[in-house]
Design a protein that fits this description.
CATH superfamily of the largest domain: Aminohydrolase, N-terminal nucleophile (Ntn) domain
Number of helices: 7
Largest sheet: 7 strands, antiparallel
CATH class of the largest domain: Alpha Beta
Number of domains: 2
Radius of gyration: 18 Å
Structural class: alpha+beta
CATH architecture of the largest domain: 4-Layer Sandwich
Shape: globular
Distance between the termini: 31 Å
Order of helices and strands: EHEEHEEHEEHEEEHHHEEEEEE
């Protein structure tokens, strides 16, 4: 049992409140998964630059060392913005390959959480309220975001096992459920060049969608394909640079609620995650149908 939330802002006036609204939604779901928590925020980005979210078990030492190393190697200005155990590294496109080489050769203990033009991912072991406070999620703005609080059932309770999982630029996934064919899919994805970092079955689902989109599918088409290729029970909420998607498996035993107003689309594992949202009393509220893809795009 895990808790999932998602928020897709349609009214630009609400973008400044995205982090605060999403945080309140996730804290409400704490009892569905107290092991770890994480949030992906789609915010602003700079043209010709990439944001890379990294995590360290020794941030007091490592992030200063990383900044010094990058200063001597990169050709264009960069930024390393530390947020507790994470740092958001903003690097020019032409320096990304050098950045990746530095991480691989000099900082093998650093974990890359995500990369993309607008997406930032923050996740750690602990309760949602503590993870949110650690990274200052409440103060973040953006166009859309998704969150997850985890009750581990298979893989270890570690930072890399927390959701969201990101396997492609500006792509991420949160998952409630379990997949029965993830080991076979993992081998197939590796053969097709998709790199996975954990043994979590949810990362396999993220990698599958990335592979589909790399081969020309849009988010909706990738989710449609997953209905025949993924075995198990699942509710997915997925983010891309400009999109937000929801899918339940054909049996749909995992709970899910959607709400839509002129200002936003919101998702929660339970309705109580949505009750604090503005205008919720007048929202269209429904339970997503089994096997039906829902997605919205800016």
């Amino acid at each position: 049992m895990c808790g999932i939330v998602g928020l897709f802002i349609k009214d630009k006036a609400l973008e400044v409140s995205l982090g605060d609204m999403l945080s309140d939604m996730l804290v409400t779901m704490t009892d569905r998964g107290p092991d770890s928590a994480g949030i992906a925020i789609y915010g602003s980005g700079a043209a010709d630059h990439v944001k890379i979210s990294v995590q360290s078990a020794d941030p007091d030492t490592v992030f200063d060392q990383l900044s010094e190393k990058l200063a001597g190697a990169l050709t264009l200005p960069f930024e390393v913005e530390r947020k507790s155990t994470h740092a958001i590294c903003t690097v020019a496109d032409q320096d990304v390959a050098v950045f990746d080489d530095i991480i691989k050769e000099d900082f093998p203990g650093l974990s890359i959480m995500s990369r993309g033009e607008t997406m930032e991912i923050f996740k750690e072991v602990g309760l949602p309220k503590d993870v949110i406070a650690r990274f200052g999620i409440n103060a973040m703005s953006g166009t859309h975001g998704i969150g997850h609080t985890r009750m581990a059932t298979e893989s270890a309770v570690v930072t890399n096992g927390a959701h969201p999982f990101s396997t492609g630029a500006d792509q991420c996934l949160v998952h409630n459920g379990s997949l029965s064919n993830h080991n076979n899919l993992r081998r197939d994805l590796a053969h097709n060049g998709i790199t996975l970092e954990t043994q979590n079955d949810s990362e396999v689902a993220a990698g599958y969608l990335t592979w589909q989109m790399q081969n020309g599918a849009n988010l909706g088409e990738a989710l449609e394909a997953s209905l025949s290729d993924l075995d198990g029970f699942f509710t997915f909420v997925v983010g891309t640079k400009d999109g937000f998607g929801v899918l339940r498996d054909p049996i749909a035993c995992k709970p899910a609620v959607l709400a839509e107003t002129d200002q936003y689309v919101a998702f929660g594992s339970e309705y109580r995650a949505l009750v604090g949202l503005p205008g919720i009393a007048d929202a269209q509220i429904w339970e997503p149908e089994p096997g039906k893809v829902y997605f919205w795009k800016h």
